[in-house]
Amino acid sequence: MLTHELFSSDTHQWFMFGRDESKPEKIIDTNQYMIRSPGNALLMDPGGIEIFSSMLASVVKQVPINQIKHIFASHQDPDIISSLGLWDSALNGTKLHAPWLWEGFIRHFGMQNIEYAPIADEGGCIVLNGVEIRFIPAHYLHASGNFHVYDPVAKILMSGDVGAALEAEGAPLEVGDFEEHIPKMKGFHQRWMPSNDAKNDWIRRARQLDIQMMCPQHGRIFTGDNVGKFLDWFEQLDVGTAIRKV
């Protein structure tokens, strides 16, 4: 599994884990993220059960396992959180920050030691080494209870399935030519994002943030001008296309 440092400062670092060559062939590729601060780490959308061993091996190269005090799950899908039961066996004194709506469902993945810390619909935050990490509402994109993670110091938005792309093996880590990247995103967003109203509510929130890097759960990272290009493109995209419009 690839480990890539996205940001580093005196207070904290961001890492991406992904492009796992050892994952089963029919398992969709996922990006996992972590914020590391002195003595404390936040692991975001830590992945499915099938990639747990690769994730654990990659994570412990960057932080002692007893310093992972926070996990974040943007929603309930198995590709981001079905590994919970295995993390639960490996961690102590850790909180899982996830939408309040999904607690009864997420617990089905196994949870004896980790404490569930429900996020209210309006969002919330945690503080890591003096940096306020915010949970930004992204409801219905694509789950009915859904959040993203924003770091105002690093100016990074971990955007879950928003911005996701279905990529060929060996794809670059970052979006280069935005127009060339659109076909890899379009079908996914039209089918998996069910509501134009929800989409536009999220775009309004996103435009209020200073985002220099947008990091989705699948595919490439958006940097610089490509963040704004994505917001403009997504705003005009008609979603929820499985519903026949009469």
Automatic annotation (TrEMBL):
<feature type="domain" description="Metallo-beta-lactamase">
    <location>
        <begin position="29"/>
        <end position="218"/>
    </location>
</feature>
<dbReference type="InterPro" id="IPR036866">
    <property type="entry name" value="RibonucZ/Hydroxyglut_hydro"/>
</dbReference>
<dbReference type="InterPro" id="IPR001279">
    <property type="entry name" value="Metallo-B-lactamas"/>
</dbReference>
<protein>
    <submittedName>
        <fullName>Flavoprotein</fullName>
    </submittedName>
</protein>
<dbReference type="InterPro" id="IPR045761">
    <property type="entry name" value="ODP_dom"/>
</dbReference>
<dbReference type="Pfam" id="PF19583">
    <property type="entry name" value="ODP"/>
</dbReference>
